[in-house]
Structures are given as structure tokens and as C-alpha cells.
Amino acid sequence: MLILLDTNETYKNIGKINRTKASNTKNSMLPVIQNKIAVSKNNRTFLIDLNSILYFYRNDTKVNVITEDKAMYCVNHTLTFWEKRLLNINFFRCQKGYLVNLEKVIEIIPYFNSTLSLKLKGCTENIPVGRTFIKKFKNLVGW
Asked: Does 4 fall in a domain?
């Protein structure tokens, strides 16, 4: 049995398949280093340990990272990107504009309107936990 194929149609279909594969695996093909992320400061790029990060926060259109040594760095992606990327590494989205390292939480402070605030090791600022995130947070810490 002989099957004749239209080569133009075949190449079109192969192109569609390749474009679909590329778009579906765009984020999954990003290189991942388990313990470090790339951050920038003063037009320089550094690799910092995830363990040294206290929290990520959104500042207007940028996402910043605060570390244990009170340094502030900038990262290229959104908080949602980092939330998904660090889901299994003890980072928790505690409010619309914050992603906190749960390993650095030393105290949970009741706040007004049934919300909470988190005190982090080596940080003078308290990080708010929004009402929509409280139930998930309490389940995570076994409260």
C-alpha cells in the first residue's frame, strides 16, 4: 500500500506541533538551580541562597527581595511566578503583595479585623497576612 502525502501540508502540521510544544513547555524548560536565584542590584546580577531570603514584595511594577543581611534586590518575574516556583520550598503567599519564607517566621501576631502579622527573624518590619490567606496559612502551620 502506498500513501501519498502533500509535503506542504505535512510541513505546516509539523510547524504547528513544534509551536504548540514550545508554548506549552516555555516555563517548564527554564533552568532551575535548587538553592539559588538570580537577583540584581546596581546593574549587577548576583546568585543568592534561597535560605537567606526573608521575603519578596511587590513595589509598583517591580518585585524586590529582602535578605537576612537587610539587603534589597530586584528580581525579573512576578510574585505569582515566584509563588509557583517556590511552592515546595517553604515560601508562602501571605498577601497580594508579599511572599514570605516560612522558615524565617518567629512570631505570629494577631492583627486588627481578624488578620495576622508575621515577625521574621532579623527583620524589624512585620509582614501582614491577608484575610483571604489566613485559612491556608493556619493549615500550613498546624494552627
From this structure: no
What is the sign of the dihedral through the CA atoms of 119, 122, 123 and 124?
positive
Q: Where are the alpha helices (DSSP H) in 25-87?
A: 79-85
Q: Strands 126-129, 116-120: parallel, antiparallel or unpaired by DSSP?
A: antiparallel
CA 21 to chain centre: 24
Q: Which domain holds residue 90?
A: 36-141
More confident residue, 105 or 33: 105
pLDDT at 126: 94
Residue 115 lies in a domain: yes
pTM, full prediction:
0.75
Cβ–Cβ under 8 Å, residues 73 and 40: yes
- 3-state DSSP assignment of residue 117: strand
Query: Measured over all CA atoms, what is the biggest interatomic distance in the chain, rounded to whole angstroms?
Result: 78
